[in-house]
């Protein structure tokens, strides 16, 4: 370093505190955007010109507009338009949801028929569909139901009286909308992270509950913007019903201007009313979107009237009395009870893995694995990435289907029911029941982001074990106090740190009082300083008698808690033994190489 640079450094060093002291005297000059100002002025001029022309050109006929805007026939037409929009939306989204669920179902017949329906109805223009329905009377004269034995007619209605223009309109709009809604809802379902499906399945939640409580509410976020687009399209699309001579808003206006020949003022009547409908719909959309975004952002800004709406919602759903009930439950619990905090013995289950193999295509991921993990044992699985650790773990609760061999937990065959010497493959519904005893904690936590911490924990016990609400809440508070998060019961997962989220995920797994808990790299997604708090809880669990299987890269932790270490590589168990044996005296070179790398 030269003398001059040294000198410079010194002057800077001594000057620094002076600058810091004068911070509050700084003047802040906001950034200027001249182009923005110019374009704003330009836009203002254009808007004023348009408004000027609209209100000064007498041919717009605003006096005639005023005369008709609130007239009775227009209001009747308007109410019909609104009614049709509401019915079309309700029926369309109902059948659309069913179609979307059918489309993503595993049954080829269901998904194929749904695809065909959507293909067909999206292809036909609405106006053609409406005309077809209107003329159905030419094809079929009547609807007839007769007694097949005597031939005596029980019901016999002519189509023309049955299919009024209004009925044809409802059917046409519903058929058309459900096809479009179905695709929007399917898109929403596909946008939900696969981890959510897996977490719900691992908790053993019934399929219907998974769809309507876990997947669809999360799908709503991507469904709503396009869905509302579709509803707005529907509201406008009702104007097409004039072909059925159904006096909705547009048809009514047409009838009037054909009589008085004031075309422009009456079209403006319709235009302004459509604008009003769209504005109301946009406002509703805004509030509903906000409702479904709960838990997604860390802090939410308030909308106008938000307090009133929140109050109304908590009144409808009885939330206040629920929180009062929670307070009461909390008071009755004595958290100082040593049985709660400390070691609570539970009965674990033995796991037997028998000649298990599994391939993904040509890639043999598990190669004839044999393993016995006694009840209450703590096993740590280590090994390089891609060696099949996750696949083995996921096979134990049948999130992964094995190709060969068998796995039993507590002597029950996973995925099968044994009767004599025959194994009957279980249906998804029965597999979900098997999973209740086998909890799983994921690397990415997979908490349900749209539910509070408390709701995440009580969901599975109530749904799968028919636990009473009060009991589930009491048990949830116990568990939360055990993982040190009692004060976070009403937080949403995204408002928690990673370590806290994983502790909630562990509490959620424990709520089912499982006999086996599988951990797949529970601390890999955590910042280093948060790893400890999660390992601490697992360490406590290791003393409870529950069978634990932990895939981990935390060698020290594995050394401390595990009674057996398994080293896997390329789908094979290379080495198995006590922590002392495997870590201090590995028998295989490959184990030694791996340990050299990670230690
Ligand atoms: P580990 O957990 O030990 O890192 P995994 O059990 O996740 O390893 O994966 C083992 C191998 O199986 C990897 O080569 C991985 O690419 C492959 N694999 C895992 N899941 C799938 C899947 N769903 N489809 C295809 N290949 C998969
Ligand atoms: Mg893995």
Short characterization:
The chain has helices spanning 3-21, 34-56, 62-69, 72-103, 108-123, 126-134, 136-139, 159-162, 165-191, 194-202, 207-237, 249-260, 263-292, 306-316, 319-332, 338-341, 389-396, 428-435, 453-465, 469-482, 498-510, 528-542, 555-561, 579-584, 589-598, and strands spanning 142-146, 153-158, 351-360, 363-373, 378-382, 404-409, 412-413, 416-419, 422-425, 438-441, 516-520, 547-551, 564-569, 572-577. The protein is an alpha/beta fold.
> How much is the radius of gyration in Å?
33 Å
Biggest sheet strand order reads 10-11-12-5-13-14
Mean of the pLDDT scores? 89
Q: How far is the first residue's CA from the last residue's CA?
A: 40 Å
Structural class: alpha/beta
Largest sheet: 6 strands, mixed
Principal-axes geometry comes out as globular
Low-confidence stretches: 1-16
Given the structure, what is the number of helices?
A: 25
> How much of the residues is beta strand, in percent?
5-15%
The total count of strands amounts to 14
| DSSP helix fraction | 55-70%
Ligand species: adenosine-5'-diphosphate, magnesium ion
How is this structure best described in words?
The protein is built from 25 helices and 14 strands. The protein has 599 residues and is α/β, with parallel strands linked by helices. The chain has a six-stranded mixed beta sheet with strand order 10-11-12-5-13-14, sandwiched between helices. Strands 4-3-6-7 form a four-stranded antiparallel beta sheet, covered by helices on one side. A two-stranded antiparallel sheet has the order 1-2. Strand 6 (404-409) and strand 7 (412-413) form a beta hairpin. Helix 4 packs antiparallel against helix 12 (249-260). It is globular. Mean pLDDT is 89; it is low at 1-16. The protein binds adenosine-5'-diphosphate and magnesium ion. The site of magnesium ion has 4 residues, from helix 17.
């Amino acid at each position: 370093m030269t003398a001059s640079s040294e000198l410079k450094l010194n002057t800077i060093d001594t000057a620094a505190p002076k600058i810091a002291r004068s911070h509050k005297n700084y003047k802040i000059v906001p950034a200027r955007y001249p182009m923005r100002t110019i374009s704003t002025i330009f836009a203002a001029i254009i808007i004023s010109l348009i408004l000027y022309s609209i209100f000064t050109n007498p041919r717009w006929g605003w006096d005639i507009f005023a005369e008709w805007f609130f007239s009775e026939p227009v209001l009747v037409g308007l109410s019909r338009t609104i009614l049709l929009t509401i019915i079309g939306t309700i029926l369309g989204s109902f059948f659309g949801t069913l179609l979307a669920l059918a489309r993503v179902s595993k049954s080829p017949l269901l998904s194929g028929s749904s695809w065909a329906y959507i293909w067909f109805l999206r292809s036909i223009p609405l106006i053609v569909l409406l005309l077809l329905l209107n003329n159905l009377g030419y094809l079929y004269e009547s609807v007839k139901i007769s007694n097949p034995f005597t031939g005596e007619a029980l019901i016999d209605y002519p189509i023309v009286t049955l299919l009024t223009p209004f009925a044809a309109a409802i059917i046409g709009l519903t058929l058309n909308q459900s096809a479009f809604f179905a695709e929007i809802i399917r898109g929403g379902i596909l946008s939900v992270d696969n981890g959510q499906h897996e977490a719900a399945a691992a908790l053993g939640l019934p399929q219907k509950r998974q769809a309507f409580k876990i997947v669809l509410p999360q799908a709503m976020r991507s469904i709503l913007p396009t869905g509302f687009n579709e509803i707005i399209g529907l509201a406008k699309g009702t104007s097409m019903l004039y072909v059925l001579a159904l006096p909705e808003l547009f048809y009514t206006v047409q009838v009037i201007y054909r009589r008085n020949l004031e075309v422009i003022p009456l079209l403006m009547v319709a235009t302004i009313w459509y604008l009003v409908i769209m504005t109301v719909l946009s406002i509703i959309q805004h509030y509903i979107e906000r409702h479904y975004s709960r838990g997604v952002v860390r802090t939410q800004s308030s909308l106008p009237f938000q307090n009133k709406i929140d109050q109304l919602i908590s009144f409808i759903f009885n939330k206040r009395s629920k929180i009062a009930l929670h307070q009461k439950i909390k008071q009755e619990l004595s958290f100082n009870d040593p049985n709660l905090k400390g070691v609570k013995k539970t009965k674990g289950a033995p796991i037997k893995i028998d000649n298990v193999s599994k391939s993904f295509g040509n890639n043999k991921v598990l190669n004839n694995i044999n393993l016995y993990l006694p009840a209450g044992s703590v096993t740590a699985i280590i090994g390089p990435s891609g060696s099949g650790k996750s696949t083995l773990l996921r096979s134990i609760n049948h999130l992964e289907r094995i190709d060969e061999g068998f796995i039993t937990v507590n002597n029950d065959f996973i995925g099968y029911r044994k009767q004599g010497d025959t194994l009957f493959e279980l249906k998804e519904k029965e597999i979900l029941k098997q999973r209740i005893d086998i909890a799983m904690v994921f690397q990415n936590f997979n908490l349900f982001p749209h539910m509070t911490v408390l709701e995440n924990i009580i969901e599975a016990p109530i749904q799968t074990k028919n636990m009473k609400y009060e009991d589930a809440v009491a048990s949830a508070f116990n568990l939360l106090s055990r993982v040190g998060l009692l004060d976070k019961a009403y937080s949403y997962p995204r408002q928690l740190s990673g370590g806290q989220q994983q502790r909630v995920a562990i509490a959620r797994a424990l709520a089912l009082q499982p006999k086996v808990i599988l951990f797949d790299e529970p601390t890999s997604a955590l910042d280093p300083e948060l790893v400890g708090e999660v390992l601490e809880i697992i360490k406590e669990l290791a003393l409870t008698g529950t069978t634990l299987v932990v895939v981990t890269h935390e060698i020290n932790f594995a050394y401390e808690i595990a009674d057996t270490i398994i080293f896997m590589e390329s789908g094979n168990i290379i080495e198995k033994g006590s922590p002392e044996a495997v870590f201090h005296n590995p028998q295989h070179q490959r184990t030694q190489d791996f340990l050299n790398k990670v230690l």
